[in-house]
Amino acid sequence: MSHDSRATEVEISRTERYVAPNYAPLPVVICKAAGCWAWDIDGNKYLDCISAYSSVNQGHCHKKILAALTTQAARLTLTSRAVHNDQMGAFLELLCELSEFENALPMNTGAEAVETAIKLARKWAYTKKGVAANQAEIIVCANNFHGRTTTISGFSSERQYWQDFGPATPGFVSIEFGNAAELAKAITPNTAALLLEPIQAEAGVLVPPPGYLSEVRKICTSNNVLLMLDEIQTGLGRTGRMFAFQHEQAQPDVLMLGKALGGGMYPVSAVLASREIMHSFAPGDHGSTFGGNPLASAVAMAAIQVLLDEDLVANAAAQGQRLQSAIERFDTPAIQAVRGKGLLIGIQIDRQFGTAKRFALQLLDAGVMCKDTHSQVLRIAPPLTITDAETQWLIDKLAAVFSLAEPDSAAPS
Ligand SMILES: Cc1ncc(COP(=O)(O)O)c(C=O)c1O
Asked: Which of 57, 131, 140, 357 matches a 20 to 30 Å C-alpha distance to 401?
């Protein structure tokens, strides 16, 4: 398979000449995709195990989502929230029924949903919990990833994310992930909320110990602290349940969704909460020109309907289990650990065998598109539409690449 054709080289150098250098993409130029598969400009075909960072849960260019997009695009796309539109109400009704929340606030990107949740928690703390002005604290976890705005980057524990972007927004306290006792110790009368990912995907698919989420739920309830779950990556079927909190029945007070809510076609995110919490906001407190626009609403409704109609949550659970247990059986010292739930799987690579990126490049040559996260972890997250035959194909390709794994002479010993 060739990734270095003249056309690819020209396209990459044109892009790199103009684009800000804030990403380090794989050396491949994708020009079309369908279902689980993507094609590059040289005609090579890849099984997409990146899924736009777990956003393309419904598969690429799903016909029903595409139909919703094109029909709505020809009818009405944008009104702003200055007036009502005839799509947003139906979208929010479907989303609230799906997640068992009373109210929703639509936004566009994941980071915006997290910013919205932070503002909501602070307003709730001042107006309902009785925290003194400007004293509210939000507890976050080490190794979190909630997006890239200045406030969110400021409470990241990843040096590159915060260094040189200060001063950080005050009011955030960081604790260890997966340790409920630490949460209990960190709560003060000023604590408004705990902001948490049920599985830390960007950090390397870190799954907390069993019982953690339900314990955290109890601690938040008994201290009148909001449990705010960021399910922007884990939600909408990715982990084999509609929401990852359902693995432990730990219904949050505030839920953030994004990514797959737009069916891989349009940026759509949302914050969900009870009426009591959401009505901390008054007109003018928060907003977005594009949030809840009719095009986004029509696409998101179709995206949810596809998840339900095609039983993609059950498929994610079944295929994820097959894939993860097959990888666990690979007989290679290159793999130190395999973690994950459903179709969110992390393969921890032993440093002696080089970086995860080294394997991502070998897999790309074998027709599998996947990306490293945090140097030593390969994340495998195909669309939830993956079939038995495609899962088997993926297992065979992974097995072939790992069976040839050799220690990396350049690796630090
Ligand atoms: C858990 C989580 N939260 C928030 C975000 C930010 O989403 P966006 O890139 O749409 O702003 C991401 C993106 O990867 C994420 O994984």
From this structure: 57
